[in-house]
Amino acid sequence: MIHGTLPHTMLSVTLVPVIKDKADLCNASELAFVLEPSDVIAVRDRPLMLDCQVEGEGPISVTWRRNGVPVPTGPGARAKLLPNGTLLIPSFQKRRDGDSGADSGEYDCAAQNRFGMLVSRKARVQLASLPKFHTHPESMSVNEGGVARFQCQVNGIPEASITWERDRLSVNTKDSRYTLLPMGILQITGVRKTDAGLFRCVATNAANTRFSHEAQLNITGGPPRVYKEPVILSGPQNLTLNVHQTAILECIATGNPRPIVSWSRLDGRSIGVEGIQVLGTGNLMISDVSLQHSGVYVCAANRPGTRMRRTALGRLVVQAPPEFVQWPQSVSKALGGSAVFSCVAQGVPEPHLIWLKNGKILTPGDNVKLTNNNSTLALTRISPEDEAIYQCIAENSAGTNQASARLAVSLAKELPDAPVGLKATALSSTSLQVSWTQPAAEVTDGIIGYVLHIRKICEPDSRELQEAISKTTFQHDLANLDPATTYSIYLKAYSALGASPVSSTMVATTLGGVPTPPTFFTKVLNDSAVQVLWELPSKAGKAEGFRLSYRKVPHGDFQGPLQMACGTNAHTIARLDRGAVYELKLAAFNGNGESDCSKRLVSLAEDGTSAKTNGGDSQCTCRQGLEGSMGGIVVGIHIGMACIIFCVLFLMFGYRRSFFCRKGTQDSWAVPRGDEGGHHVQNNGVPKPAVARPSETIELMPQGRNELGGLNGHNGGVNGINGVNGVNGMNGSANGGAPVGSGQCHVHIEQHHSNLPGSGTDTGTG
Fold first, then answer.
1. Closest Cα partner for 588 from 517, 509, 537, 535?
2. Contacts of 17 (CB under 8 A, 6+ apart)
3. Considering only CA atoms, which of 368, 420, 370 is closest in space to residue 393?
4. 670 strand-pairing partners
5. Helix then strand then coil, % of the chain, to nearest 5
6. Where are the beta strands (DSSP E) in 266-308?
7. How far is Cα 572 from Cα 569, in angstroms, rounded to an integer?
8. How far apart, in whole angstroms, are the C-alpha atoms of residue 140 and residue 559?
9. Please, what is the Cα angle at 90 between 86 and 95, to 5 degrees?
10. Residue 256 — very low, low, confident or very high, per pLDDT cuts 50/70/90?
11. CB 484 within 8 A of CB 515
């Protein structure tokens, strides 16, 4: 039975037992591992033993699992459970496809007593094996005085020990020219003719012994007499090791003259001297590697007396299994309370953390939160089902580690009752006074003090402040508070066993005024629903909540108010009358009263988002009831409609007179008045009798003559120009041909009241 080399640190945490009575305080001890199973390489048909020794309050039951499945240990089973918790497999079996009796896999043991369950680390159990070589040495010819290198590779479990033979005899390892490296490499420097022969490697482990193919070494000629540049035959390979293991970086070079091999780090740091050794002519060995040895190493083959050199690089990565820098601590908590466990581990690569509850993976839920990359476990609203052993498992590629703690849930009768009669009163703009009912004398004797919890309303729990108060004090002043700010306050009583349930929560506001009026928006969702959105105060506690009221125009009564919490900033009002007009008003409030409200009218006939209200004309004093009569609203609507109609008529008349102006052929001409001629000139030049008409003058005056214009006479008729005050029609004509400016014209209308009969009667023709 061969134990693996994977390092592992077993952590034992002393825990606090559940207090059932005073005797338990001295006699109880927590469940903890004395010895956990470790990685093992087993030999076929040989016995295997896996350790699991536990201490704690009995009775303790121990069970084993392989790959998460319970291992049968009853009568007739292949595995036996010894009294000390050790698992014995009398004859280890090789894995076969579909064979449930195969014994390789990951094993863990679980220990359980009345406090909960504890699970050990996983131990990897492998079957020793030695397959065939996948790399054999190759024959080569080397000049006398040169360098020879042979390599063979085999993947054994455990790693095989490799030796070399020449002509079926072990090579002389005392000869300094022969260097054997653990990864199956044989180096021969300063080759001589006596080194010629057949070389093979021999691999041996607990499972078997194997021989590689033979390779011939031929020695040709004498030492070279010509110059040869340095050449690195084999440079360092990338390595990944765990701390405390040994790293060997190969570097063998040839050339004439023989090159000098040196080592350095690519980052310029010193390699150091402690634990550093050179094997052969240039191989670097680092014993007991640490994290500081990680880096890129440079092998340089230098030609003596010159700066000529060749280099090769290799990266060394050193890993470290997880180690805890902060352990979870066992606690006793009351029903309904909360508990926090912290677990911080370090290692390379960075460990991954998981939590177990009584040996099973803990899944976050409503009252279970995992934060900070699983390093913090928080349980709220604790119930009896939460009483358990909680384990923090840290894992990375270098190993695993575990720490455990227990949560004990105290019965309610062991803890003080929640304080009652909590009251809060504002003393000034920066202080509040909190008081509560003094409990009975027998209750007070068991209380060691109170803790007052205070935070601004709508602030997160993490911003909560706490003040400790003496057990004989039942009134406390909170000072240095913010003016006009609302606070949430509750109280806990503490005994030697823990905290009471929380008291009722009080909300109180310091003096200093009411909130500022809120700014809000409206969005019509459809013809019967509108959404109201508003801006929250920039600072927490400045508003305790909001009140929203609405009414249908022109009805007088508001519906509501609908009261919303301080963190709410939107509300949808549905089931309104289709297409109707509604008036909305919104106010913020605190303990000092209600702010002025902001209000606006919303028509459900229009979709979209309205403009936001502001602190100007849209503010009202919500406490004044039904101010602002509906008569004013109706008058305003009629005035608006009249303005729209007037604008439309103005634009229509302006357009027609502009068109009439462009038809003219003179720089300035006027429509004749009734007293300035008895006939009008028609397009065909035939006079037509004058028509009696009111005393009104319409003048069309061109504003410029810069642009080219001109109209033919038969296009110049202007018909049906309507006046005001009963003037229904006028005939006009103009002789075409004269160029006129095309600039815009001002239309001046003079109205002269006349008592002439026929005023407002249209007798003209087009």
1. 517
2. 24, 25, 28, 29, 30, 57, 115, 406, 408
3. 370
4. 699
5. 10, 45, 50
6. 276-279, 283-286, 295-302
7. 11
8. 102
9. 105
10. confident
11. yes
For the chain, percent of residues with pLDDT exceeding 90: 55
Q: Are 117 and 194 in contact (CB under 8 A)?
A: no
Which residues, in sequence order, are CB contacts of 607 under 8 Å at separation 6+?
524, 525, 526
448, two tokens: 């060691």
The size of the chain, in residues, is 766
The one-letter amino acid at 68: G
Which residues 6+ apart lie within 8 Å of 397 measured at CB?
319, 349
Buried b (16+ CB within 10 A) or exposed e, 319-337: bbbbebeebbbbbbbbebb
Beta-carbon count within 10 A of 541 CB: 22
Please give the full DSSP string across 490-522, using - where no structure is assigned: EEEEEETTEEPPP---EEEE-SS-PPPPPPEEE
H/E stretch holding 402 reads: strand 399-410
**412-433: burial string, b at 16+ Cβ within 10 Å, e else:** eeebbebbeebebebeeebebe
Q: How far apart are CA 52 and CA 64, in angstroms?
A: 9
Q: When comparing pLDDT for 291 and 607, which is higher?
A: 291
One-character DSSP codes across 16-79: PPP-SSTTHHHH----EEEE----EEE-TTS-EEE--EEESSSP-EEEEEETTEEPP-STT-SS
221 Cβ contact list (under 8 Å, min separation 6): 143, 144
Question: Which tokens is 675 given?
Answer: 């007293």
Cα gap 697→687, rounded to integer Å = 21
Structure tokens at 552: 């249908």
Q: Are 597 and 515 in contact (CB under 8 A)?
A: no
Q: Over the stretch 126-182, which tens digit does the pLDDT of each residue have? A: 999 999 999 999 999 998 889 999 999 999 999 999 999 999 999 988 899 999 998
**DSSP states of 529-575 as a string?**
EEEEEEPPPSSTTS-SEEEEEEEETT--PPEEEEEEETT--EEEE-S
CB 93 within 8 A of CB 133: no
Structure-token match 């591992």, residue found: 33
Burial class (CB within 10 angstroms; exposed 0-12, middle 13-18, buried 19+) of 378? middle
Mean pLDDT for all residues in the chain: 79
Tell me how far apart the alpha carbons of residues 625 and 621 are, in angstroms, rounded to a whole number: 8
DSSP, collapsed to helix, strand or coil, labels residue 354 as strand
DSSP state of 741: -
- Judge whether residue 443 has pLDDT over 80: no
Three-state SS at 437:
coil
Say if residues 566 and 457 touch (Cβ distance below 8 Å).
yes
Burial (CB < 10 A; 0-12, 13-18, 19+), residue 307, is: exposed
